[in-house]
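Hi F.,

I've been meaning to write this up properly since the lab meeting, where we talked about keeping a consistent format for the predictions we share between groups. The idea is simple: the sequence comes first, exactly as it goes in, then the structure tokens exactly as they come out, then a line or two of notes. No screenshots and no reformatting. I'm using this chain as the first example so we have something concrete to point to.
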Amino acid sequence: MLVLDGKIAAAAVKELLKTKTEQLAAQGKRKPHLAAILVGNNGASETYVASKVKNCEETGFASTLIRLADTIDEASLLSTIHELNSNPNIDGILVQLPLPKQISEQKVIEAIDPLKDVDGFHPINVGKLVQGLSTFIPATPYGIILMLEHYQIETKGKHAIVIGRSNIVGRPMSILLSSNLKQGNCTVTICHSHTPNLKELCLQADIIVAALGKPGFVTADMVKPSAVVIDVGITRVEDSTAKKGFRIKGDVAYEEVATKASAITPVPGGVGLMTIAGLLKNTMHAYEQRANG
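Output, unedited:
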């Protein structure tokens, strides 16, 4: 059984990006620059954004973190985004989700310049993805593709099950796996809360991508021998024995599923790290588009 270690795969992506950044500096050019907006003080969001900033530093990218109070009104947040849109030294913009209830996430997503939308959520970029055009791919699905590529996981002609249909992971993941790409060309089935025969479908799958946010949902009796299992779940589960009072759990019952899978991602240490790798790749892509435009 192969452990698809996100730390190793992400390090390989970051090393390539770091080399590119060093080459830019040697040519007297500026660094790629990512701006992140964090609204409020949600613990998980704080952790995610801090990790993104740290990875920018490790890769040689410039980064700007803008902190805003959770009482901010929608118009003020949109104004901040517009300022970043017009800043020629900012290549990528991300707004950490979720947002406070007084703010429309969709309005925020649509306010970001599609050419700086390194999260890949803007409808224009989603449309390009569906049509197979060059675009910003949502960071988590992109990271999964990069991981499959790093570990040379064969996908052509395989049956893939994607559990979850969110716009952030499930839907774009299904599009990528079914696309005519090196790590694509799968026959894809999307499953969700209204799928009546989920277990039976999973038992037919060569590849399972679990992205539904329910800890330990995928168990060994749902996985056929030698399947590849990608766990996107990242849920904080209370645990009084843990130092922080919680543990991070994935959507897959790792210990039991690992005995049947040919390859599996751990949680933590798997897809989460690759999400940041995908974000960094998108930021470099945004920089290159602007530099060549």
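Notes:
The chain has a mean pLDDT of 95.
The chain has two domains: 27-115, 139-272.

If this format works for you, I'll send the rest the same way.

G.
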